[in-house]
């Protein structure tokens, strides 16, 4: 068995095996146990007591993180000419329609979010094979298909993210950076979990939130007591 490094030993001493922490405690502890020299991403994993195979138990939504994501989000706005100026002013990195449709057909997907208008979906729809697997396909449920593209662009730039439960019943998401203060981490995690709680399907029976873990890139996962977030 390999020896633990000084940093690994320090981390092992701080995180109690099998212990479930409160969200507040975990938000402080995750900063203490992160030893990376770069600004690591902060991730959260929430396991739900739902069956995603059933349409009435699918959990999907959007949330505006109070302190943003800490990341530079590249936004492409596929819109009609009359909406281009507003989209650019709102902060969209790329704005247009036909020229970007052709670029995407050629394999270009160098963006994080694509926002479009209902009237443009006839052209955007066929791109599903390229955009779908990359999680880039615009969707009305996530607010990325809208008449008000300027507001949508602003919200994404300010920290609005969308999430969806996977086939295993888990929601994974990045909710900030380790350079955030413990209070900022707590606020973002609290808002994220509270949104998931509000979206509980009426068809879901038994325990809704089964487990929650928070971690940073390459750090150990910290278990959060689900009971500590029930009333968020």
Task: Note the gap between the termini.
Answer: 42 Å
- What structural category characterises the helix and strand content? alpha/beta
Strand content: 15-25%
Can you give the helix content as a percent range?
25-40%
Mean pLDDT: 91
Largest beta-sheet characterization: 4 strands, antiparallel
Please list the strands of the largest sheet in the order they lie side by side.
7-1-8-9
Order of helices and strands: HHEEEHEHEHHHEEHEE
Query: Shape, please?
Result: globular
Number of helices: 8
Spatial extent as radius of gyration: 20 Å
Poorly predicted parts: none
- For the secondary structure, the number of strands is 9
Set down the secondary structure blueprint.
Elements: H1 6-14, H2 23-32, E1 41-48, E2 60-64, E3 75-78, H3 81-90, E4 94-96, H4 98-105, E5 113-116, H5 121-124, H6 128-131, H7 149-158, E6 160-164, E7 170-177, H8 182-198, E8 209-216, E9 222-224
Parallel strand pairs: 3-4, 3-5
Antiparallel strand pairs: 1-7, 1-8, 2-6, 8-9
Helix pairs in contact: 2-8, 3-7
